[in-house]
Amino acid sequence: MAIINRIAAYSDDMKTWRQHLHAHPELDFECHETAKFIIARLTEFGVDEIHDGIATSGIVALINGQGDGPTIGLRADMDALPIQEVRDLDYKSKTDGKMHACGHDGHMTMLLGAARYLAETRQFKGRVALIFQPAEEGGAGGKVMCEEGIMTRFDISQVYGIHNWPGLAEGRIATTPGPIMAAADHFSVTIKGLGGHGAMPHTTIDPIIIGSAILQGFQTIVSRNTNPLDAVVISTTQFHAGDAFNVVPEMAELHGSVRTFTKDVRTMVKTRMAEIVENTAKSYGATATLTYDDGYPPTVNDASAVAFATTVAAELLGETSVAADTAPSMASEDFSFMLQERKGAYLFLGIGESPSLHHPEYDFKDTVAPIGASFFAKLVETAQPL
Questions:
Q1: The dihedral of CA 101, 328, 295, 191: what is its sign?
Q2: pLDDT per position as a tens digit, 27-37
Q3: How far is CA 297 from CA 177, 181, 319, 345, in A?
Q4: Cα(283)–Cα(90) distance, rounded to whole angstroms?
Q5: DSSP codes joined into one string, 61-110
Q6: How many CB atoms lie within 10 A of CB 289?
Q7: Please, are residues 93 and 82 in contact by the beta-carbon 8 Å criterion?
Q8: N- or C-end of the chain: fewer Cβ atoms within 10 A?
Q9: Cα(203)–Cα(357) distance, rounded to whole angstroms?
């Protein structure tokens, strides 16, 4: 595998940045100290413009190349997770209940490494827009940045992002055209039956029985309403009812998530869920309502952008270290909102064997950061050559 020599020369600096960010995690949109650290580094590098306060704590920084040309966007997410870190690292999180359990500390470091190199060398035309985005973990910070107009304001023509990927060989890059990550929606079902004594169930309308029928009915959407070649995951993850061992409760609630890859399948699932909820409850003499909240849309890669990005990656790392047809993940990502506005691609960068993302023992591998930074830099120089 290859790393740009200049980036390899400051890999120790990148390790220091990453471990500082790891030790100081912040959640959601409140990444203010993280933003201060990033701005300080970008100022040291001599980038041309720094625009902060976007989506509360987000940043877009611009580096001018040599001569006129388009603007390419590179994105890193900033926020951590509300998870208690359990490993006793020298740079362990200093804030109880918060940790970088998804590698966003590494993503920021990769983009900072690319920024330092690009600001020094400027071997490209046009501009590069460095997008540091808060609130990926459920807050839809990517959507907010787009709603605040970053694509138009900074005239971004295409945009790329990387996510580290445990289980993928260290330094290997994998992506695919079309959907690479799923839409993630949330649902709640409220069932109103008729409560009563547990010894006299014939006098009740049991919402637990009804809820059980509804959640099983949801699985028929996957097995009988969905083309087997399409992908759907419906997970009922919460079932709340009652608080006494001898009482049939009046109410029950179900909550869960839905994962899909296409608009048509997503719409079909919502329609069928509503029908199953209403009609199942009615058949038992109860009433029930479905609340369905659209979450992140699917992350859909542009085919030409994938072809370009994987060519660049193969030139940097070798063809055997790049996969252009990896299986999509049913996880979700709010980079999807950026790809709805501009063509681009999202790629996975392997960190080898590791605890999974969102695990309290997870830690980004510092040896991978120079690879990601080199890929970002090579992408810019190849997309907008002198």
A1: negative
A2: 999 999 999 99
A3: 16, 9, 31, 15
A4: 60
A5: EEEE-SSS--EEEEEEE---BS----S--TT--SSTT-B--SSHHHHHHH
A6: 13
A7: no
A8: C
A9: 48
DSSP letter, residue 222: I
Q: Which of 173, 156, 184 is nearest to 344 (CA)?
A: 156
CA nearest to 323, candidates 181, 182, 180: 180
DSSP single-letter state for residue 205: B
pLDDT score at 2: 73
Contacts of 241 (CB under 8 A, 6+ apart): 207, 208, 211, 249, 251, 252, 253
Q: Quick check: helix, strand or coil at residue 54?
A: strand
Contacts (Cβ under 8 Å, ≥6 apart) of 279: none
Q: Does residue 108 contact residue 78 with C-beta atoms inside 8 Å?
A: yes
Residue 342: φ, ψ to 5°:
-140, 150
- Counting residues of the chain whose pLDDT is more than 70, the rounded percentage is 100
Q: What is the pLDDT of residues 155-193, one digit of tens each?
A: 999 999 999 999 999 999 999 999 999 999 999 999 999
Distance CA 56, CA 162 (A): 22
The token pair at 104 is: 């966003």
Please, what is the angle between helix 32-45 and helix 11-23, to 10°?
160
CA 350 – CA 337 distance, rounded (Å): 24
SS3 179: strand
E strand segments, 193-304: 196-197, 232-241, 247-248, 251-260, 287-296, 299-301
Q: Which of 130, 136, 137, 99 is nearest to 116 (CA)?
A: 130
Which conformational region is residue 243 in: left (phi greater than 0), alpha (psi within -120 to 50 degrees), or beta? alpha
Q: What is the pLDDT of residue 76?
A: 99
User: Cα separation of 89 and 93, whole Å?
Assistant: 8
pLDDT category at 377 given cuts 50, 70, 90 is very high
Q: Could you tell me which of 78, 76, 74, 77 has the C-alpha nearest to residue 159?
A: 74
Non-local CB neighbours of 353 within 8 Å, separated by 6+ positions: 166, 167
Cβ pair 159, 342 in contact under 8 A: yes
Predicted confidence (pLDDT) at residue 1 exceeds the cutoff of 70: no
